[in-house]
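FYI - complex with adenosine monophosphate, inputs then prediction.
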Amino acid sequence: MSKLVIVGTVAFDAIETPFGKTDKILGGAATYIGLSASQFNVNSAVVSVVGGDFPSEYIDLLSNRNIDTSKLEIVKEGKTFFWSGKYHNDMNSRDTLATELNVLENFNPVVPNDYKNAEVVMLGNLHPSVQQSVLDQMETKPKLVVLDTMNFWMDVALPELHSVIKNVDVITINDEEARQLTGEYSLVVAAQKIHEMGPKYVVIKKGEHGALLFHNDDIFYAPALPLKEVFDPTGAGDTFAGGFSGYLAKTEDYSFENMKNALIYGSTLASFCVEKFGTERMLTLKEDEVNQRLQQFKNLTQFDITLKNEN
Ligand code: AMP
C-alpha cells in the first residue's frame, strides 16, 4: 500500500442551501479529502494550518482515522481559514459569500519526514505556491501527483497555478473552472488545452452530471448516482478527489484503466457527502454502505448489447 500526502485547507465553513443554514462548522478541502481517503485505510498525512480557535476534537476526528496530523500546524494567536457559500436552487451552482485566508496567508507547509518518500501526493485546494512547496519537499519522485484547485486561485494567483500545474500528473477541476482556465467552452477542447499545460490526465467534474476522465484521445465517463436526498454539495469535489487518490494509493496501479475505477470510487464517496450538511455523513460512513452503492453504480451503468456486426 502506498503512502498518501494530503495538502489543502482545514477550515470553518458557513453554508446556506435551500434546505437550511449552518453556523461555522468543520470544513476544508484537506478535511474532506482525508475523510474520504481514510475509507481505504491508507497511511496518510495532512499538511495544513489552523488557528488557535480550532477545536482539538476536530483534529481528533482526523487522527482517529489513521491520518497523521503531526504537521497540521496550529497558530495559537491566529484565526482558522473561513469560507462561506450559498447554493442556488438547482444545488449545482453556488456563490462564495466570504473567503477569509487568515492563517493561510503566511503558511509554510512542512511534510512529515516519513512522508517525504510517499508514492501519492494529493494537492488539495489552497494557494498554488503552497502546493508547489509540498512537491519541492518530496525526497523521492512521487508515482502520482494529483492537483485540485478552484476559480478563487485562478483569480488571485494564476501564474503560480500555471507553474504548479506543469508538475502534476492529474488535475481535477469542475466544468466551469476548466472553461475559466482555458477560455474554451467545449470540455473536450478544454481538456486538450489542459493536457498541453502539463497533466497527462484531466478529470472534469460536472456536479450532479458526473465526471469525465481524459487521457489524450481516450475519454471515460462516470455518472453521478441519482440521489433522493441532496442537502449540501459542499466538499463533494474534495471527497471525490480523496476517493480517487485514496483508491489509487491503495491499489498502486496508476494506469488509465485503473483510474476508471478510481473515478467510480470518487463518485461513489461524493454521493454520500452531499446527503448531510458538511462532513456529517462522511463521519458515519461504513464500508458495507460504500459497497452497496458501488453495486448500485454497476447496475446503473452496465448493459449487455450486441452490436450489429457481432451477429
Ligand atoms: P468543494 O465543495 O469540493 O469545492 O469544497 C468546499 C470546501 O473547500 C469547503 O470546505 C471550503 O472550506 C474549502 N474552500 C473554499 N474555498 C477555498 C479556497 N479558495 N481554497 C481552499 N479551500 C477552499
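The chain has eleven helices and 15 strands. Residues 225 and 296 are 8 Å apart (CA to CA).
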